[in-house]
Design brief:
Shape of chain B: globular
Largest sheet of chain A: 7 strands, mixed
Structural class of chain B: alpha/beta
Distance between the termini of chain B: 42 Å
Oligomer: heterodimer
Shape of chain A: globular
Structural class of chain A: alpha/beta
Number of strands of chain A: 14
Distance between the termini of chain A: 43 Å
Radius of gyration of chain A: 20 Å
Low-confidence stretches of chain A: none
CATH topology of the largest domain in chain B: Dihydrodipicolinate Reductase, domain 2
Mean pLDDT of chain B: 95
Order of helices and strands of chain A: EHEHHEHEHEHEHHEEEEEEEHHE
Strand content of chain A: 15-25%
Number of strands of chain B: 15
Number of helices of chain A: 10
CATH class of the largest domain in chain B: Alpha Beta
Mean pLDDT of chain A: 97
Strand order of the largest sheet of chain B: 12-11-7-10-9-8-15
CATH superfamily of the largest domain in chain B: Dihydrodipicolinate Reductase, domain 2
Helix content of chain B: 25-40%
Number of helices of chain B: 12
Largest interface: A-B, 35 and 36 residues
Largest sheet of chain B: 7 strands, mixed
Low-confidence stretches of chain B: none
Amino acid sequence: MPVKLGLMSFAHMHMGSYASAVNQIPEAEMVGIADHDLDRAKKMAETFNSKAFVSYEELLKQDIDAVIVASENIHHRELTIMAAEAGKHVLCEKPIATTIADAQEMIDVCKRNNVQLMTAFPCRFSPAMVRVKELVDAGTIGEILAVKGTNQGRMPGGWFIQKDKSGGGAVIDHTVHVADLMRWMLKSEAAEVYAEISNAMHHEDYDDVGQLTITFDNGVFTSLNTSWSRPKSFPTWGDVTMEITGTNGVISMDMFAQDMHLYSDKTMSTTWLGWGSNIDLLMVQDFVSRVANGQPVSVTGEDGLRALEVALGAYRSFDLGEPVRLPLST
Amino acid sequence: MQKVAIVGAGHMAKVHGAAYAKMANAKPVAVVDIRKEAADELAASIGAQGFTDFDAMLQAVDPDVIDVCTPTPFHKPYVLKAAEAGKHVITEKPMGRSLDECREMIATTDKAGVKFMVAHVLRFFPEFAAAKAQIDAGAVGKPAIVRTTRGGGFPTGSDDWYANVEMSGGLILDLIIHDFDWLRWCFGEADRVYAKGLAHSRLDHIDYALVTIRFKSGVIAHVEGTWANPSGFTVKFEVAGDQGLLDFYNKETAPVTVAQKDGGAKKAGVTIPESPTAQNPYYLELQHFIDCIEGDCAPSITAEDGLRAVEISLAALESLKTGKPVSVGA
């Protein structure tokens, strides 16, 4: 029996990738698509050979097991709760929400309705990251002392720079992936965050530069650059990197280093073309197979909340001009 | 023709000695080190005379210039001795172990009316000088976020002095002060510094630090320093501005790489990258100082520059202790 999936909102560009993943997975079946924007739902239904529903409610009335939510951040709560109350498992785009209270409510409602909530952290499924975790767990570089991380990219525009839809700029957009990888790899929770934040890339009312320092419960200190600092002319979208220093050496990871360089006279530009494994596909596959087998999802809503807390703590730190203890008191 | 006496016979003294030996308007005449053999050996290799006593050296060779290449705590006493003897003086970085030491050196050299320069050689490295020129020309627009990396394995020095944080200040004072000076040169005065690092850990021959600096201009800089990376010396910088991105990585720009099956004294299988330039940066730096003496002009790196760089390092070390951001330049 395939796992039947509904897709809720294509506001986030990652949904295109998740949709194509669903269509590639034999154990998954795309039942339909709903969106705030009905035209977009129809267009996407055509692109992905599926069916558009006029409302989220209509979609949730169908015989489906699970949904993927990729709306604007601010709507994650509403759509996740709607799906949970209809008895559907949820794979929700990151950041899980824009406030701790929203994230907690999503977790609680899913629990109450006996459905699973997974946060979409595809970087955990990167074969490079899986290998790094294996090396760290095996003690290859001894005891971990410090980590320097980056998740830098181009400014995405659209609703990402409208705070009432996104909950913030580069910091909320780019903190959570690597904060989650660090928690997962270090098997420890973030205890304190300090941040320098600015809007010096685009000079608008959203943050586009973030440089965080995160200290974990186990004493490991880390830094994380979350900036939208890649110019439009940059040959790729951005990066996810970690430089991990241990008592016996260093592991460097550049998650998307598997590329080739195209120098094109047609476009008069240079492009770094990735050929690495499709991590969105790996993540959706994992979600589908765990739902199918009734196993707990591998990245939980709680994981999403913890990562969100680092981002919100960073904003608070910058406002206060000092480090902020985590977890945040709401 | 300037007669130069070098104080110290360690690694930097050798590099400086070789540079003076090639210079048309300078000549190394003395090497002073309490280790007689080391002094004699270096002196012999550059056609100078070895001494174990500074005052005896002054008497014997009456140099014009003193070049201080000792461990950090000995910079001040020799700078003062040189100035009091009316000699021009250049000292290795960091200028001193404390701001008081730096102030005393400035006062004494001012009073003596001698030329005084702090050897922040990075300003003479072609890639760092070229980057500064690009930044000044507006190549990346208005700079927003700057990231640097510097380091390799733990350095060896006489009496293992680098491992003594009271003497060396660890890599925050000894190594990444290079980057602090370059950042000040490019982006002006720092406002506050937040840092995490291992300077006060009891780990054996490991140091690592992640330092975030906010400049008065609004530029945010992140500096990684490592004495815990066995993969060879690494230097990176990246400057993102509102109109572009400039980046550099030494391992990607070395025009010569040697890989030996049997590396002789080096470990077999090690590959060693080389980046030869027509004039080495140390030569350019020392030639500049000698030319300033001969032409009676002010060195491009002032004593104040030396002090300000130390101030950033000490602020970072203070932040390690307090866990708080530390204001500078107040």
